[in-house]
Write a structure and sequence with these properties.
The protein is mainly alpha-helical. The protein has helices at residues 2-29, 32-47, 58-92, 99-129, 136-142, 145-175.
Length: 176
């Protein structure tokens, strides 16, 4: 069992580092200088008595805001990986049917499913803002939302199975 959990821990660390590098890449992709120039641009709009919403650059800065929100949700997804790591540690200790295992499964499931819902909504808003006609399935595949959603649903089902396992283990402990 030790070798299997060591292998799972290695895979977990690899996925975590890959996810962290994707977040760093997204942060670098956002042009910070243009965001700073937006403050100067907004100040010049006040002098011309025009609103930011009616300006030409407003859509670009709206897209920046959406991208920053997506980065925030990717950091939120890393918390799911943290609970997954805690789950691996419980498996390593061979405490399978415990309340903490069920709690970690539920947290991972909720984080994964919420991430998919929020990122999908942000992508649809982003496409609406930049007015591109893109297929919804392309959004799902581009963000790997289908894989993450299936994982979240699987963890939810697994938590229900573990709840039954805890009940059976408690009954078994009482009969002895």
């Amino acid at each position: 069992m030790e070798n299997k959990t060591r292998f799972l821990t290695f895979i977990f660390i690899w996925v975590f580092i890959f996810s962290l590098s994707a977040i760093i890449s997204d942060i670098i992709e956002i042009n910070i200088i243009e965001l700073e120039e937006s403050v100067v641009y907004q100040n010049s709009l006040k002098e011309n008595n025009t609103t930011f919403l009616t300006s030409e650059k407003s859509l670009r800065y709206s897209a920046y805001g959406i991208r920053i929100a997506q980065i925030g949700f990717r950091v939120y997804l890393l918390f799911g990986f943290f609970y997954l790591f805690k789950l691996l540690q419980l498996i390593k200790e061979e405490s399978y049917f415990t309340k903490s295992t069920i709690a970690n499964l539920k947290k991972v499931s909720a984080i994964f499913i919420n991430y998919c819902i929020y990122i999908f909504a942000l992508e649809v808003i982003f496409l609406f803002v930049i007015s591109e006609k893109e297929n919804i399935l392309t959004i799902i595949r581009h963000q790997n939302l289908d894989i993450i959603a299936i994982a979240g649903i699987s963890f939810s089902i697994l938590s229900k199975v573990f709840i039954k396992g805890v009940l059976l283990q408690n009954e078994n402990d009482l009969t002895i």
